[in-house]
Amino acid sequence: MAQHACPFLAIDPSGQDLYGEIARIRAQGPAVEVELPGGVRAWWINGLELNKRLLAGPETSKDAFQHWPAWINGDISRTWPLAIWVSVRNMVTAYGTDHSRLRRPMAAAFTKRRVDALLPRVQEIVDRALDDLERIPEGEVVDLRAGFAAPIPHEVVCELFGVPPGEDGPRSALYRIINRFFDTAITLEDAQANGVELYGTLTAFLQYKREHPADDLTTALMAAHDEGSLSEQELMDNLILLLTAGFETTVNLIDNTVHSLLAHPDQLELVRTGQVTWEDAIEESLRFEAPGAMSGLRYAVEDIEIEPGLTIPKGDPVVVSFAGAGRDPERHGPDAERFDVTRSTSRDHVSFGHGVHHCLGRPLAMAEATVALTSLFDRFPRLALADPSRPPQRLRSIISTGHQELPVLLHGRGAGSQPGPRPEEAEAIRKLSGLGGTSGTRVPRV
């Protein structure tokens, strides 16, 4: 039988005390019922090993239309503020053979050749963003998220998918829409309006791409649609997944890593002096501040026994908390709440998912972050938080983990001898950008 915590812990939709809530949930047990925004109840899972089990195995599904009775029966209103996270029909919300069918064309389109070809362009985009930062007067406070962390992934993902530039075009619209997409404190009216604008923008974009095909991911996915691998709805919803996830997670990874390093100067010094690598710092950042705090809802396909006396009933929704798993003291020790680039367990996280739902875009995100971070700290070696005593305000989200703004001072500008990473940093980029990970797969020259 299920055990019910009473009263239910109501999750703050603004996400301002995410890790405090995670700690309180963890203290109640390995699986705890909580109340999500909009009054929806779900089981919250923080433990790393339990996260992996539920992510990798067939016990849970992400297909609400098959495995969430409350959604199927209409008990959960289609006007629920988070409904779009449930209603989309893409590879992340699919189960079993449907998931394999939908993931196959995504993997085929997201080729190593295409990613390799983009990497030099990533460096150009980063260097241009840094040039823009150098034009800001000395001593002026800069929002590094808006001025650096966000524009780079946005431009990269738009080039990858062939989204045309222009102030009044889909690039500008998507930037605005995606920034609202992850806001879980948004009003119902604004959430619905954002959804309408999102689908309208993508409908117009797909029409444009049908008239202007090119060597990009959107054209490749449209070919899969034309061959019968994807329905029109699945094409649209997979684009939503890839465009939003390809942007938001990388923005947060850059934002969070910069903030953690600047807030912990001793850790930054270890990276600067070569005692640890940039890869070490990025992996610890992924553990410490998962760019995506949770995986979206999953649903128990069958009764799931967590431990004797604690069972998640079939059909109940489940939150797999990437943020909670990253700070699991059972895996990362009693100091799991501390940012430590020398931590031996840093790579043991689920920030890019796990098992069959492991993120296809991980290599590109890692390469983007490495290019951005190495170039930033080379160009501004004395970069500093504008006010170290005041932590930046977190995003209004229980799904996306980052900051609304990242105020910094650009000290030491122009110190780098040449644009781009130093040789040892370029080697780290080459290592991280291999689609096969670090297991010896050929990697591109940057």
Automatic annotation (TrEMBL):
Query: Which InterPro entries does the record match to this protein?
Result: Cyt_P450, Cyt_P450_B, Cyt_P450_CS, Cyt_P450_sf
EC annotation from Swiss-Prot or TrEMBL: 1.14.-.-
CDD domains linked to this entry = CYP107-like
Transmembrane listed as a keyword:
no
Q: Name one GO molecular function term.
A: oxidoreductase activity, acting on paired donors, with incorporation or reduction of molecular oxygen
Pfam families (alphabetical): p450
Does this UniProt record's set of keywords contain Nucleus? no
Q: Which PROSITE patterns match?
A: CYTOCHROME_P450
- Keywords assigned: Heme, Iron, Metal-binding, Monooxygenase, Oxidoreductase
Family stated for the protein in its record: Belongs to the cytochrome P450 family.
What this protein is called in its record is: Cytochrome P450 107B1
Source organism phylogeny: Bacteria, Bacillati, Actinomycetota, Actinomycetes, Kitasatosporales
